[in-house]
Amino acid sequence: MSLKKVLITGASGLLGRAIFNEFNANSTWKTLGLAFSRPGNHLKKVDLTNFDEVKAVFDEFKPDVVIHSAAERRPDVVENQTDATKQINVDATKNICILADDMKAWVLFISTDYVFDGTNPPYDVNSVPNPLNKYGVSKYEGEKVALASSAENSVLRVPILYGPIEKLEESAVTVLFTKVKVTDTKCTMSNYERRYPTYCPDIAVVIRKLSDERMKNPDIKGIYHWSGDENMTKYDMAVGMAESFDLGIEHIEADNKSSPGAPRPYDAHLDSSRLDNVLQVPRTPFKSIIKDVLKPFYP
Ligand SMILES: NC(=O)c1ccc[n+]([C@@H]2O[C@H](COP(=O)([O-])OP(=O)(O)OC[C@H]3O[C@@H](n4cnc5c(N)ncnc54)[C@H](OP(=O)(O)O)[C@@H]3O)[C@@H](O)[C@H]2O)c1
């Protein structure tokens, strides 16, 4: 049996590394992971904003599936770097989709719940996006490019992510622990916006299984959502972390106002039912795994 080939962009990132590990551990796939500033660990260095570099990879590897996870995903950075963000989140997506279409490869574009304004959850795959910040706008533009390039392509929207990390600052969830673990210093945590923290290795299983399914079933196309199902504020997550390590929570103060910086949706809960109807992947409960994720960074 010839192996199917999957090309993963952003394979050095928080989600991309989980996707890379999931495909790499599966013997029915030949996997190529791309990175930019963090190559190594079998990842190939490619600047996705350079068309010639990307074309050379496609010509050599000839993927059947492209999981496009690379992006600038920090909303407050995007607010001040709109041109650079457009290059990676939109223009690079367009080039990847053109090259993929040439070789009839299926593209899965990873997107975000931030395409929604958060006023009327839950959001299903037919809900109309209305992003509140420039990051959400850039990802919505990327989605439109991916879906317009080929009716075969897919978009997978996911919410706030956590998982195995190289440093706490890599995830908007784990970064909270920098303050949670310093119990003699008061801190405030947002207790306003509702979030659904989702474990990256779970999403990686979803993506690998959806890719398996797509290889058999051409009806796998269009928009999908997949989300954890625990409704938490950042304050709830911080308390969960403290309790996992038997730390006090007296130093953590709940802040009931909206978060500063780029505007964020209040509650962009994603309805995952379209994907759950195709395949069932269990959702790892936050409290069952957060200590394992954070242990390398404690004390
Ligand atoms: N993190 C979240 O909470 C979250 C929530 C919803 C949706 N998403 C979406 O999920 C996807 C993955 O996010 P993430 O958290 O894994 O992001 P991340 O950890 O910030 O990783 C970003 C990845 O993009 C790569 N990259 C950036 N610029 C590049 C360029 N010019 N050429 C090649 N590669 C480049 C980076 O490579 P190097 O590091 O090697 O430079 C890195 O692998 C994104 O599409 C994001 O919009 C994320």
Could you list the spans in which at least 5 consecutive residues all have pLDDT below 50?
none
Bound molecules: NADP nicotinamide-adenine-dinucleotide phosphate
**Helicity range of the residues?**
25-40%
Count of alpha and pi helical runs: 10
Report how far the terminal alpha carbons are from each other: 49 Å
What does the average pLDDT come to? 97
- What's the domain count? 1
Kindly provide the name of the CATH class: Alpha Beta
The quaternary state of the protein chains shown equals single chain
CATH superfamily: NAD(P)-binding Rossmann-like Domain
Strand order of the largest sheet: 3-2-1-4-5-6-10
Subunit structure: Heterotrimer; composed of a catalytic MAT2A homodimer that binds one regulatory MAT2B chain. Heterohexamer; composed of a central, catalytic MAT2A homotetramer flanked on either side by a regulatory MAT2B chain. NADP binding increases the affinity for MAT2A.
Pfam families: RmlD_sub_bind
GO molecular function, one term: methionine adenosyltransferase regulator activity
Organism: Lottia gigantea (Giant owl limpet)
Give a written overview of the molecule.
- There is one protein chain.
- This protein has 299 residues and is α/β, with parallel strands linked by helices.
- It has a single domain (4-165, 198-229, 268-284), classed as Rossmann fold, CATH 3.40.50.
- The protein is 37% helix and 16% strand.
- It has helices spanning 14-24, 51-61, 75-80, 82-102, 134-149, 177-180, 200-216, 234-244, 273-278, 286-294; strands at 4-9, 29-35, 44-45, 65-68, 106-112, 154-158, 161-162, 187-190, 198-199, 222-225, 252-255.
- Strands 3-2-1-4-5-6-10 form a 7-stranded parallel β-sheet, with helices on both faces.
- The longest helix is centred in the N-terminal third of the chain and has 21 residues, at 82-102.
- Bound molecules: NADP nicotinamide-adenine-dinucleotide phosphate.
- NADP nicotinamide-adenine-dinucleotide phosphate (NAP) binds next to helix 1 and strand 5.
- This is Methionine adenosyltransferase 2 subunit beta.
- Pathway: Amino-acid biosynthesis; S-adenosyl-L-methionine biosynthesis; S-adenosyl-L-methionine from L-methionine: step 1/1.
- Residues 5-297 form the RmlD-like substrate binding domain.
- Belongs to the dTDP-4-dehydrorhamnose reductase family. MAT2B subfamily.
